[in-house]
Amino acid sequence: MRYLFLGKGAAILLGFPDTTQDADVFVEKSRENRGALLAALKTLGFELTTAQQEEILRGKDFVQIRSGPFDVDLVFAPEGIESFRDAEARAVTVEGIRVCSIDDIIRSKEAAGRVKDRETLPRLIAFRDWLRRARS
To answer: Where in the sequence is the domain holding 64, given as residue range(s)?
Structure first.
């Protein structure tokens, strides 16, 4: 299955010192991948409604699931990121988990424009700058 962690949870995996209530997962939208995602969610213990299963199988842009071992937001078309392929090329692996780049996380937060995202952006940008300095 092809997916990338996105959002604040992804930033936390990169070392961002914060908390979040859910996991945002950017899912590659192919038919085969959507079927694999559905099977994986069921294996993990998510109880999906018929409507949620249909939304996943058709690749609805955003599917929120609150009926499993943790809360997850499935994102097939995140704002601010042009394609899964491009994001995957920029992604990093953290302890075996594929994570969007910090720049993609920031772009997505900027494009979403929600109040909670705007409040987090200055700290995410400072974290990105710290990461760049630490790596050079």
So the answer is: 3-135
d(CA 47, CA 44): 9
Mean pLDDT across the stretch 90-119? 96
Mean per-residue pLDDT, 64-77: 97
What is the C-alpha separation between 84 and 28, in angstroms, rounded?
Answer: 6
Q: Length of the chain, please?
A: 136
Report the CATH number that the domain containing residue 71 is assigned in CATH: 3.30.460
* pLDDT band, very low/low/confident/very high, at 136 (cuts 50, 70, 90): confident
Query: In total, how many domains does the chain have?
Result: 1
Pairing of strands 3-6, 92-94: unpaired
DSSP line for 21-90 = SSEEEEE---HHHHHHHHHHHHHHT----HHHHHHHHHT-SEEEE-SSSS-EEEESS-TT---HHHHHHH
pTM value surpassing 0.85:
yes
With beta carbons less than 8 A apart as the criterion, state whether 74 and 25 touch: yes
